Amino acid sequence: MSDSLFSLMCPGEIFELKAELNSDKKEKKKEAVKKVIASMTVGKDVSALFPDVVNCMQTDNLELKKLVYLYLMNYAKSQPDMAIMAVNTFVKDCEDPNPLIRALAVRTMGCIRVDKITEYLCEPLRKCLKDEDPYVRKTAAVCVAKLHDINAQLVEDQGFLDTLKDLISDSNPMVVANAVAALSEIAESHPNSNLLDLNPQTINKLLTALNECTEWGQIFILDCLANYTPRDDRESQSICERVTPRLSHANSAVVLSAVKVLMKFMEMLPKDLDYYGTLLKKLAPPLVTLLSAEPELQYVALRNINLIVQRRPEILKHEMKVFFVKYNDPIYVKLEKLDIMIRLASQANIAQVLAELKEYATEVDVDFVRKAVRAIGRCAIKVEQSAERCVSTLLDLIQTKVNYVVQEAIVVIKDIFRKYPNKYESVIATLCENLDSLDEPEARAAMIWIVGEYAERIDNADELLESFLEGFHDESTQVQLQLLTAIVKLFLKKPTETQELVQQVLSLATQDSDNPDLRDRGYIYWRLLSTDPVAAKEVVLAEKPLISEETDLIEPTLLEELICHIGTLASVYHKPPSAFVEGSRGVQHKRLPGSAGSGESVESPDTGSAAGVSDAPPAVIPSQGDLLGDLLNLDLAPPATTTGPPPPTSSGMQMGAMDLLGGGLDSLMGAGFGAPPAAMPASFNAPVSGGLDDLFDLGGGVGMPSGAYSPPKSIWLPAMKAKGLEISGTFARRAGVVQMEMTLTNKAMSVMTDFAIQFNRNSFGLAPAGPLQVLTPVSPNQSIEVALPLNTVGPVMKMEPLNNLQVAVKNNIDVFYFSCQYPISMLFVEDGKMGECFL
């Protein structure tokens, strides 16, 4: 049965409710309204009772009035003409002697998002903003923010924003808090409006109100204080002293907001100041207390603590035990605690940290065990004095022979080798004993790296690498790349013994692989070995930079911004608001004082989605906000026509093989590295054309004539999305005519006929100059080439990005839609002359 059937009320029920709503008895009327609200709550449509419910507004009963207002808020949008009937009652209620009714009326009018009602709201709202009762004033303050969301211009014209600013000086703390909340919300949608003009006098009023507000009022005020930049360290200290008592509040949101203010203002305090040390000690207990709450609150607190520890580890350096994992912690809490433990690890506490981590490595939760083993490696890299103890702990874990523990241990030992070269290589023999148990790509790649890096110390290194080579094509790309590099390293160290092995791996990488990354690396090694073995040795066996534990830290400028957003979603995601807030064009990037160069906020240059990039073509170019910006942002250089290096011709491949077995490698095995490099083949010396040289025809007539370039075809409509029809295509300008050149491929089991095409409105009015000419039916597995001439006389509408084109293609099966992007250069005329309108 359809869900909509449950939302319908039978006519008899509606009739009964209508009769009860019009009853003379107050109690019966109130019960009827309750029934209406109950029906509305479970999703039943009771809009037919709108006039009858509105008639019940004329009552002194506060409970009944609340119910009627609730109904009005729900149905006013769908019945705007009927809602006008209630306006007189609203205006009358705004002058009621009872402050609760006045507040209720103005709140309800603010919640009814109907344009016709907003114009009637102005006068009652103006009176309520100056009402003698603080409850009415605080309700009216929030109503201004709601009205601004509906009609910003009306609010500015009526002077409500100035009245809101005046309310910051109100004698009642809750009115102050609501005025701050309303102004902050309006300022978020208009970041350049400077509504909250904070100065020392205003800050003093806010701090005075802070002590007497409700908890949510305190949060609004603290968030507002966090946007203020003190004039000097004395003012900063004064504000910190008055905010510090909030750290002992029962509400965790108040605590985090207070921490945010203190973390920001601490930047301006000299570190040699006595108060600075006192403040550090005061910040630790409230953060520790947050970890005794429910798991969900613990997680939010831990994510914020993670940021605080990265900025100021000294705050919690003596609180390591608080972050030890409990047996009943959820996995998300365990992993976050583990991360903070590593950040707090130091020479003073490393012994107890390692003891804990070794204990965690014997747990039953596989994910947690893996992280614990990795944490031991991170401790070794971070605290040099503990490295030997960490390696010993990892070897003990390898002896347990637990498969996933062994694999994680090998991965982290590889990192320890990178950090401390030529120090712990004695453990390699133990690692090689576990070679057969490795089945995860990362562990196999790590082991291959170790064998290749220390090949001269491993007698049977060639046999070990050859065992991996047997299933080369079944390995992941990560392992294949590592194996290729390791065998080349081995060859450069032991050239006489591994000639066949290196030839085999280079052949597999270049001839038998379709992975462009692997193929590219294979060609580079092949060319290096065959032309300049000395350079090959310098490149492949070059000394590697030491790694550090700092690689997983958040980038400093991002960390500063996240510290300014403590207690918000940004601090939980560890991403700036612009990365996940939809329509965040106006979101400002905040900076800590004294470390951002200037006190001004920097707006994000990229207002598009930062969370990810769509796999499907076309790639979206972020909007620049104006037509000229879009035009200048487009890349006019023709894209590369190949995705990797061109495979050598048969003669070239033979030459390469000859070099590999002859001159290049003979010089390695025989007369040292003194042989002259072989000449580069013609294909490597060919001049590269393209870019601006082609665009302005600076090539002196060599290469492709100007204007004739067309990008390679790309798949616009995959077969899986179009019931077997695949369309790939490109755009070209031929003899002054723009053409859409397409390949239609039938990957279905039935014949396709009756093709037609249509464009949506676009930035330059591109439209088909004629019908799509597919003269013969397209049989299964058949492809057909089609060239569709285009003109620019179609309807115009600016697209995002500017050169986006939305297309509909019809055939005998269905209608299919796709979008593509055309190069702007296709619209340029050949003579390059400007029309008079541009002069």
From TrEMBL:
Biased composition (Low complexity): 634-643
Region (Disordered): 580-619, 634-655
SMART domains from the UniProt entry: Alpha_adaptinC2, ARM
Keywords carried by this UniProt record: Acetylation, Membrane, Protein transport, Transport
Pfam families: Adaptin_N (PF01602), Alpha_adaptinC2 (PF02883)
Signal peptide: none
GO annotations of cellular component type: endomembrane system; membrane coat
GO biological process: intracellular protein transport; vesicle-mediated transport
Membrane topology of the entry: Peripheral membrane protein
Coiled coil: none
Superkingdom of this protein's organism: Eukaryota
Compartment(s) where it occurs, according to its Swiss-Prot or TrEMBL record: Endomembrane system
Protein family according to the UniProt entry: Belongs to the adaptor complexes large subunit family.
Name the UniProt record assigns to this protein: AP complex subunit beta
Native source organism of the sequence: Amphiprion percula
